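Exercise: predict the structure of this protein bound to glutamine.
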Amino acid sequence: MTIGVLAVQGNFREHAAMLRRLGAEVVEVRLPEELDGLDGLVIPGGESTAIGRLIRLYGLEEAIRRFRGALFGTCAGMILLDRNHLGLVDLEVDRNAYGRQVASFETDLELGDGEPLRGVFIRAPRVREAGPDVEVLAEHAGEPVLLRQGRFLIASFHPELTDDTRVHERFLELVREETNVGT
Ligand code: GLN
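Solution:
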C-alpha cells in the first residue's frame, strides 16, 4: 500500500513515520504528479493558510480535488478539506475555535473499543456544521473530533503526535476498503 503525505508544511514527518511503522510505503508529496499511483493521501496539521497557499502555488489544489483515493486530514488538514477550502468534505469548520485559555490541550477520547485515546489538540478547528453523510467516530465535550465521510477520515486533533497508532490503522483500513471497491 502506498500512501502519500502532503509535505509542503506542518507535521508531515510524524505522519510518515507512523505510517511506515504500520508497514505502509510512504511518499512525500510536493508536486501534482507525485499523487499518481497513490492509494491514499494524508493532509497533515500545520498552518492551513500556509498549506493552502503552497498547494495553489504548486498546482496541487486541483490535483488533490481530482485524487480518487482515500484521504486523511488532521487539524489544518481538516480545515483544508471543508466546504470553504477544497470543498471535498461536507463540513463547515471554524479555525482556532477554542478560546485563548484552552487553545491547546490534551484529553482522553473514547473510540468505542474501551481503550481511551490521548487526543492532542493544538489550536484546533471545531466543526460548526456537518452534512448528513458525515459519520461521527469520536467526540470531545459533545462535539465531533474524529469523523468520516466515505473515503475521507478527518480529525481535529493530532494522532501523529502520540504513540497510539489506532487512528492511522483506521485510515489504512479505509484505504484498503477503497482500493477493493471495483476490483
Ligand atoms: N490553527 C491552525 C490553522 O488554522 C491549525 C492548527 C494545527 O494544525 N495544529 O491552520
